[in-house]
Design goal:
Elements lengths: L2 E6 L4 H12 L4 E5 L14 E4 L5 H10 L1 E7 L13 H21 L4 E5 L23 H20 L3 E5 L3 E2 L12 H10 L4 E4 L5 E2 L2 E2 H10 L9 E4 L6 E2 H11 L7 E4 L7 E2 L4 H7 L7 H12 L29
Parallel strand pairs: 1-2, 1-4, 2-3, 4-5, 5-6, 6-11, 7-10, 8-13, 9-14
Antiparallel strand pairs: 9-12
Helix pairs in contact: 1-6, 2-3, 3-4, 5-7
Bound molecules: nicotinamide-adenine-dinucleotide.
């Protein structure tokens, strides 16, 4: 049986770029995705596609039974960090327990390496720039689930020898980002609002800082990491170095979309880490990562791609579990 690489979340934004890279290098790839946040058009036509959930233990077992999986790139998750406070059960079920199905099968089938996209969210409010050797203190269920998976992978390495590589990306932008989800992806939200002629909405004063990362800078590095034995069993921050405020982002997006006077509304602040950016020296040294896409270029590329992307109103998240302290803009019209 030929070896295959399993990519979960391969119909999504970052995952689909990783699939493209793996296929270009001649690998056989299986994508497992339930299309809850990704799109079938994103999936490379040379990949096999299994439409299903990582939460489906039997399906995950079947994929491993019927194929010789050599590596797993695990990207499937609902990455709505701010919303995760209000969908706690869903967050842990989908993002954490779903991951455990994959880790169990990876152990049993003795795969060569498990690559996991964690997140800068594991750091919470922490010293800046955030480095891999500081103690993570996540502040929301999304980050807590990511940290739990990281720690589970360390246990699985110690007891069963499962090799892993963990990436902590942040604020990735570029073609194929989901721009129709009002709960996540700030640049996608702004593009969606401008295109639908709605005011841009900013939580708080807009002075929170983030470093926006071009997907084309990180996807090949993540895909290639499995070839570098020195990279194994380590955690890497990956992404752009230089932080910008959300207000700066807003100004550049408005100008790039030829809407310099577009209205901006400031909403009540939500619970979020004010400043989040990280140090990438480890990924630069060990993985040859380079931060090449400038802030303006990254935004421009995504806007150009969005010209032909379908733009719609986001559907409300169906099962909000806790409504207390839910930001007003996330409430249903009747509330
Ligand atoms: N985009 C970022 O800035 C960023 C930053 C840090 C970490 N990450 C992580 O990178 C990964 C990919 O993020 P993205 O931005 O490409 O998001 P995305 O929503 O575009 O991709 C995630 C994919 O996972 C799929 N998915 C979700 N739940 C699933 C399930 N239960 N079973 C099968 N498929 C499922 C979705 O349909 C989607 O295609 C996520 O794990 C995310 O937490 C992203």
């Amino acid at each position: 049986m030929d070896e295959k690489i399993l990519v979960t979340g391969g119909a999504g934004f970052i995952g689909s770029h990783i699939v493209d890279e793996l296929i270009e290098q001649g690998n056989n790839v299986i994508v497992l995705d339930d299309l809850s946040g990704g799109f079938i058009e994103n999936i490379n036509t040379q990949a096999e596609f299994v439409n299903g959930s990582i939460e489906d233990t039997r399906l995950v077992q079947k994929i491993f039974r019927e194929n010789k999986i050599s590596h797993v790139f695990h990207l499937a998750a609902y990455a709505a960090e701010g919303l995760s406070h209000f969908i706690r059960r869903f967050n842990y079920k989908n993002n954490l327990l779903g991951s455990i199905n994959l880790i169990n099968e990876s152990i049993k089938n003795k795969i060569k390496c498990f690559v996991f996209t964690s997140s800068i969210a594991v750091y919470g409010k922490n010293q800046l720039p955030m480095r891999e050797d500081i103690v993570p203190t996540p502040e929301d269920p999304y980050g807590i689930a990511k940290l739990a998976i990281e720690q589970d992978l360390k246990c699985a390495k110690e007891l069963f020898g499962l090799d892993y590589i963990i990436f902590r990306p942040h604020n990735v932008i570029g073609a194929r980002q989901n721009i129709n989800d009002k709960y996540r992806n700030v640049l996608g939200i702004f593009i969606n609002q401008i295109k639908r002629n709605l005011p841009i909405t900013i939580f708080g004063d807009g002075e929170q800082t983030r470093a926006f990362t071009g997907v084309k800078d990180i996807a090949p590095v993540i895909a290639n990491s499995i070839k570098n034995q020195q990279a194994y069993n380590q955690i890497y921050n990956i992404g752009a170095d230089k932080p910008y405020t959300v207000n700066q982002l807003t100004e550049i997006v408005k100008r790039a979309m030829n809407k310099p006077e577009h209205e901006v509304i400031y909403l009540e602040a939500r619970k979020e880490v004010k400043d989040a950016y990280s140090d990438h020296n480890k990924a630069k040294e060990i993985l040859g990562y380079q931060d090449t896409t400038s802030f303006e270029e990254g935004i421009k590329e995504m806007i150009e791609w969005a010209e032909n992307a379908s733009i719609r109103e986001t559907e409300e998240f169906k099962n909000i579990e806790i409504r207390e302290n839910l930001p007003k803009s996330w409430r249903s019209k009747e509330e």
